[in-house]
Design brief:
The structure holds 2 protein chains of 2 kinds.
Chain A lengths: L1 H14 L5 H6 L10 H19 L2 H91 L6 H64 L21 H18 L8
Chain B lengths: L2 H4 L8 E9 L3 E6 L4 E5 L2 E4 L2 H7 L4 E2 H6 L4 E4 L2 E2 L2 E2 L9 H20 L6 E9 L5 H12 L4 E6 H8 L4 E8 L4 E7 L8 E4 L3 H15 L7 H11 L10 E6 L2 E6 L1 H9 L2 H13 L6 H5 L2 E4 L8 H13 L4 E3 L6 H12 L2 H6 L2
Parallel strand pairs in B: 1-9, 9-10, 11-16, 16-17
Antiparallel strand pairs in B: 1-2, 2-3, 4-5, 4-6, 7-8, 11-12, 12-13, 14-15
Helix pairs in contact in B: 4-5, 6-13, 7-8, 7-9, 10-12
The chains are: A mainly alpha, B alpha/beta.
Chain lengths: ~260, ~350
């Protein structure tokens, strides 16, 4: 019985709320009446016993009292289970939401990194080409200047020939270098794109899971009935015979209405 | 729910939930063996278009919520004069079909309000008007079966009397919105001769009050819903305990009106037909038990909350029948549902099984 009292105390404690003296003063409360927890428990027990005493006698009363206490404890446990399940579902939902946030952030960062990389590559390529061209032109000019001092050669002719020669060589090299760079660049882009795809798949899967969790949360657990099994008329009922007859008539009317009185139905 | 279907749903080994339901024209109430008691106005609303649906974020609204958002909804009151607005024959039009769907959704919502657990057997008894047609009853059964394991219907006044354990020599007056039902109980299931029904009930009082306000309060603006609220707050017959001062808008400005006389007159229309019905049922009863019957008159249903109605009926009975004792039941809104719950509880297990 002590454990029942303790449980009752815990239940009353859980249902109570705390407030400070300052907040009570702010609300204009000057004095408070205090009712101890033990007194509340005693009152509940006394009320239950008085109610039972007025309706039942002897052993039956004790049996009902015990059954009521057992049922109270069962309902309390059932309530605790539901609370726990609710917390678990909420935790799962919060975890899924955190995961989605992280994945979204990673996806954004990777997209930004890819964009930056592409821009940097384009800029670097243009700068490098300009530098190489200037270098080549400088070299060619030096060669032409040397040839100009040589008798019998036309400067323009020599310059044209040199330029054609150099540019031909440079183009070939440039092409092969370009191919090598493109291969490297493609690999990087490919890696980034694969990573983005993977993140997108993860995001979709997590979102689906979140939806499932949310759907699960919408389904309320419901409230347990006080009965474990079908009851039927109590044999001690003062009008049991009459009531049995009435139940039979209601049933027959419903059987007829629901067409289950047909053979084979 | 057949055996073959049992494997599809959750395993039901946790317990048995009984639900008693009072399916009424104005309100639908449920009482369940898990302690839940709920009532909802018998109104169902569906969004008028895609815009309303997006705004309301729901496909269907019920009760007060539907009434409050009625401008965005196609609003249905699926019951009229105590029965479904549904003829049940092949010729029913689109409106009748929509009302049938609304009734089915309303029954589903009422059962959801009882908060059944998925792992419990749910057995439901629905109090339906005695005059409901077979097709009407079948429609109610069909709607409920989608949500429960087994369902039965019973006469509404009978369930009120059963809930109070008054099974013999008692006369139940159930004042609903659409109809007032009188039923004589004498230990067996009531037959046609034991029942009287007429349509002077809550809605008729609202219409009468509305007419009187219109005549006596020039410029007052109101709707039938406002009139219903006024009746529920102030409704009385006999001596007024206080003046009924009600604010009604006139040209957009709330203006106080004294509606005491209008309310008294409108509510008084209930008394005469009730006394006539009592007279008929008493006069055709076994003379040996007539006095006992007159002294055991139960007043139930939402309309019984009109203040002074029990005394007014009692007074009229004394004048016309020599004596009479009228008792207003403790919980007019839940009287039918509580009785249906008790019937569900007392029904033997094999009866429930056979109807699954």
């Amino acid at each position: 019985m002590a454990s029942f009292k303790d449980t009752l105390k815990d239940a009353v404690r859980q249902l109570s709320f705390k407030t400070s003296l300052d907040s009570l003063k702010k609300k204009g409360v000057q004095q408070v009446s205090v009712l101890g927890l033990d007194r509340i428990i005693s009152l509940i027990e006394a009320a239950v016993h008085r109610s039972l005493k007025s309706r039942l006698v002897g052993i039956e009363r004790e049996a009902v009292a015990d059954a009521t206490k057992a049922e109270f404890l069962r309902l309390l446990r059932s309530n605790e289970d539901l609370q726990r399940q609710k917390s678990e579902v909420e935790e799962a939902r919060e975890r899924a939401e955190d995961e989605i946030d992280t994945l979204r952030r990673e996806l954004t960062q990777n997209n930004q990194a890819l964009q930056l990389k592409l821009e940097q590559d384009a800029l670097a390529l243009a700068t490098r080409y300009e530098g190489e061209n200037a270098e080549i032109a400088k070299k060619v000019a030096a060669v032409v200047a040397g040839l100009a001092q040589t008798p019998g050669a036309t400067a323009t002719t020599v310059e044209q020939r040199l330029m054609e020669l150099v540019m031909d060589v440079v183009s070939g090299e440039r092409q092969s270098a370009e191919e090598a760079r493109r291969a490297l660049h493609d690999r990087e882009v490919d890696n980034l794109q694969r990573r983005i795809k993977k993140l997108n798949d993860n995001l979709a899967a997590t979102e689906q899971r979140l939806q499932q969790v949310a759907a699960l949360k919408d389904v309320e657990g419901g409230i347990s009935s006080v009965y474990r099994e079908v009851q039927g008329l109590a044999t001690g009922d003062a009008q049991v015979g009459k009531k049995k007859e009435l139940m039979g008539e209601i049933f027959k009317a419903n059987l007829k209405l629901q067409k289950k009185d047909k053979p084979g139905a | 729910m057949s055996d073959s279907k049992q494997g599809d749903g959750p395993k039901k080994d946790h317990g048995v939930l009984y639900i008693g339901m009072d399916l009424g024209t104005s309100r639908t109430s449920v009482s369940a063996s898990n302690g839940v008691r709920e009532t909802v106005y018998s109104m169902v609303g569906y969004p008028k278009d895609v815009v309303s649906q997006k705004l309301l974020k729901k496909d269907v609204l019920f009760g007060k919520e539907a009434l409050e958002k009625r401008l965005s909804l196609k609003l249905y009151k699926p019951l009229e004069k105590g029965v479904l607005k549904y003829s049940g024959d092949g010729s029913m039009d689109a409106e009748a079909k929509a009302n049938l769907k609304a009734a089915q959704d309303l029954i589903g919502e009422a059962i959801r309000l009882a908060k059944p657990r998925k792992d419990e057997l749910v057995y439901c008894v629905i109090g339906a008007p005695a005059e409901a047609s077979v097709k009407n009853r079948e429609a109610i059964i069909e709607a409920a079966r989608a949500h429960v394991d087994s369902v039965m219907l019973c006469s509404e006044p009978f369930s009120v009397a059963y809930g109070l354990d008054w099974l013999e020599d008692v006369l139940v007056i159930d004042i609903g919105a659409g109809t007032t039902d009188l039923c004589r109980m004498h230990g067996t299931m009531p037959e046609e001769a034991d029942q009287v029904m007429f349509d002077i009930a809550g809605d008729a009082v609202d219409a009468e009050l509305s007419r009187r306000i219109e005549q006596t309060c020039p410029g007052a603006q109101f709707t039938i819903h406002m009139v219903k609220d006024i009746k529920e707050r102030w409704g009385f017959v006999g001596e007024a305990s206080e003046r009924c001062m009600v604010d009604l808008p006139v040209d957009g400005k709330p203006t106080p009106f004294d509606l005491t006389e209008q309310i008294r007159s409108a509510c008084s229309i209930l008394v005469e037909p009730i006394v006539k019905g009592i007279h008929k049922l008493v006069a055709s009863f076994d003379p040996e038990f007539q006095t006992r019957l007159k002294n055991r008159v139960l007043l139930a249903g939402g309309g019984s909350m009109v203040k002074g109605l029990d005394s007014a009926v009692e007074k009229a009975m004394k004048e016309r029948l020599g004596s009479g004792k009228v008792i207003r039941i403790e919980e007019p809104i839940y009287g039918g549902a509580n009785g249906a719950l008790k019937i569900a509880h007392d029904m033997p297990a094999d009866f429930w099984e056979q109807l699954r």
